Protein 1
Amino acid sequence: MYEWLDREIVGHGRLPLLFFLLGFLAAFLFIRLSVRMIRAEVSWWPGNVKPGGHHVHHVVFGVVTMLVSGVSLIAVYEDGTQTTGAVLATFFGIGAALVLDEFALIFYLQDVYWADEGRTSVDAVFVAIAVTGLLLLGLRPLELINVTDFRDSPDPWVRVAIALSSVINLLIAAVVLLKGKIWTGLLGLFIFPILLIGALRLSRPSAPWARWRYTAKPKRMLRALERERKWRRPVIRAKIFVQDFIAGTPSAVHVKEAAEHARAAAEVELDHVVHAAPPPISLHPVASGTMDGLPGPGSST
């Protein structure tokens, strides 16, 4: 284990990345334990920070920690050691965990920590862990293309080929994202075959791609809807169960009802996200003097 750590992590300069991940995981697990203890009103556990009666969310401490450690990392970038970088990266990971744990608060601009919308924070944490894990394993975005060859190669045609390949890779990633496949696009940036499969497969029915390409093809849209409900139901159910296990169930749900809540919440989310995209608004006027239902110049409202 030590030899692997020394060869793969220290030898490749990934020690700060490892400590970032460890700090991130430790802080996330601790803060989730803390908020659940506070929610359970455990008498001996410290409560919320409320100077002057004002509740200070832990995202504030996360932002401050990220700022201080991030600036410090930049300051020692040239002459600092891996050990120094690892220490500062640990604090940066701690701050990032505190921020992403309240990502839903930032996104919705309201305290939805224990509501169903609060699961957005856990989604953000899962994405951060996945990306960091891939980087730690040595994978890089645009893995099919060794972008560093662009700088090292003296041949201008090689540079052109690398740049063109990178642009094609990013365009394919854009197609995957337009098809509504966020995780596929994310992993595909590191593993190109996944990106290619995502670009060739059917779009999600509510994605922009389906809006542009499937609204005039009802059979294809129906296939997309059926496929989405079939394959996303067990994934969403498992995701919600894990989220509830790690982050706690929403405020209206009893702990003993967690499994039933996962099933019910999965159907609610399916009803919310699995629907046919509306047709795009046409810019060409129709015979009646309107454009796709918009009032014409002489019509009254």
Protein 2
Amino acid sequence: MFSPEGPTVRELAVQALSSVERGYDLLAPKFDRTPFRTPVSVLDAVAKALGPVGPFEDGLDLCCGTGAGLAVLGGLCRRSVTGVDFSAGMLEVARRGLGEGVALVRADARALPFTGAFDLVVSFGAFGHFLPRELPGLFSQVHAALRPGGRFAFPVLAPPRPSSPAYWMLLGFDAVMRVRNAVWRPPFVMYYRAFRLGAVRRELELAGFTVELQPLPEFGLRADGSPRARLVTARRG
């Protein structure tokens, strides 16, 4: 996709007609050569923003994929770094790229096998795979995995304006996915416009977190003066 080393149109079509788990197993060998991989600029901005509130002891990358975010944790956590994902294919790619020293666990984020194990949980670009009704359970799982005082942090980008081509592209993508899931099984959950910051903040607070929003200045401001990107930091009491 967008490069000779990326997946072909046929490979993307096969992925899109699979389940989320199977789709990512298929995409894993070429995932890091697609636009879906979290950009280094985002990873660096999050690491810089979290640096002043660290260091942390133990960190978890939620829905770690091929491991891009694990490097952020490695620079912030003094004792251990863990990645969790439900795609065996993505974890295998992460394992080959990271080597020893990082624990990789295959598990569903909605049923985490951890209790009070981490001081920091991060996640990058995974929330489109969760329906709005699944967020309370997901956030409760993260809350339980954190120690008291631990933080759950993730970046969010400001949604594009209706006047921009990006707005209509994402709207069209979500519409196509809804039609696909209405007529084909198993479903492939990936909606770019379902993760709304106001609703997310409310669900985090209901799960027992205190929520802070921090601008990521590396990405500048929109025309109305609001940040183009923010770091959401949810602190367990």
Protein 3
Amino acid sequence: MPRTPPLDGPRFAFGTLTVIPVRVHRWDRTAARAGMLCAPLTGLAVGLASAGLGLLLLFLGMGPLLAAVASVAVPAALTRGLHLDGLADTADGLGSGKPAEEALAIMKRSDIGPFGVLTLVLTLLAQVAALAGLYGDSWARGALGAVVSGVAARLALTLAARAGVPAARPEGLGAAVAGVVPVAGALAVGAAVTLAAGAGGALLGPWEAVRAAAAVPLCLVPAELLLRRCVSRFGGVTGDVFGALAETSATAALLVLCLGGTG
């Protein structure tokens, strides 16, 4: 297996998954493998920015709801809304009832259909409501939620790029990263993210440590179910599917973090 220079992985991850101005020097499968293994790092950066803006508004006295809206807006801005667009397009494709080729064509259209609009609205409402509840409990819980959900969203991408998951199209981001990550590597990254989430939660107490650590594997369950449905329905993954997986995982992580109220 060709060796990848240390920065090629982060460059690929930040250059393809965020709007942060990073030049991607390589676009081959080896760089893609390293990049998808580094995907949670982009989630950490996005999550910290999300938490930072939310806390700023909270400390300015604007309240938990506006802080939550700001925290949800940051990931959308730092990805040009591509993950949300992917969620809407995937919902339209799945809801169309059309054969795979026709469903994929629907997903490539620039407009958003009724399934996409409904899914998008409900997902954003769930994210805002969950974060508002967390910020309402304490600024620290809100910040932790923003960071954990950001990292968990990108971890879902690492797992979706694992070996054995095919691409639905021969072109696009889905084709570039489909099947590039060894299963053992994906599991190792997942374990590291779970431990890191637990460590972050431990700063707020033992119950928060358990809840934050549990949020990572639990949020991946609906993402994995969606992934399998998309592979079965479309024949593989696309860039839109990756976006849908990220938003699904992020939302599920926030909901898990809300379980049980304050510790």
Protein 4
Amino acid sequence: MLTDAQKAKWHRDGYLRLEGFFDAPTRNRISDFVEDVAGWDVSTDKWMKWFEKTSDNRKIVSKVENFLDYHDALRQTLLADGRIRTSIEKLLDEDTRMLKELLIFKYPDSGGYRPHQDIYHVPHKLPERMVHAIAAIAVDDAAPDNGGLFFTPGRHKEGVFPMDAGGVINPDVAESFEWEPVPWKAGDVFIFDDYAPHYSLPNKSDRSRRALYLVFQRASTGGPDRAEYNRMKRAYNPPEGKVSDLEDLKTPNGIFYRDDRNS
């Protein structure tokens, strides 16, 4: 049950950390399930995978979407008891439906994500405020050195900030924000508004920073269901195919970067 203080923080800052949401045995199972997904082959019609090239010329998985329908144990562990959805609906004061899920792996020597807002209506041409809350399930501990997130509190109330075609907030705007790191522990759930600006640095540590993201939209907004969203995703931002070129991998989105590439 969320406290009044937690609800107040959500409305004030645009994000909220729920510590110890999953107990140790459950978070260990989630970690194992995530590694299952990391090892899946590329699919051309089910899940979607993106990769990146490391500084020593290895290909590592960067991101996966649309995987819960193909991993029953992981789906049940995350969603069966309804606790995540209930928490979000208490923050929004409204019923929701899940639009999408994604995994960001952030293995050692992975890239970062430039300042942006997770406002899906921009790249996918959805009505404004269609998607409203994202639940990040911490698979690993996160801090700035292993690619943990930075947020700027309270800016979710200011609408869409100026950005480039890829969704990166204009540097002069982003540099004017007061950013704070939001470290978390494995098993925490971190919920944030899709208008809350955030970013992460490349992972230069020897520790992974894997996180699962469940994206919920207000029930009252209507709009596409998960199947429609995934069709749009493949059209706007295609995943890697069965045959990939290490020197020309598909990027997961317009905000991703490596410090040896367009930095």
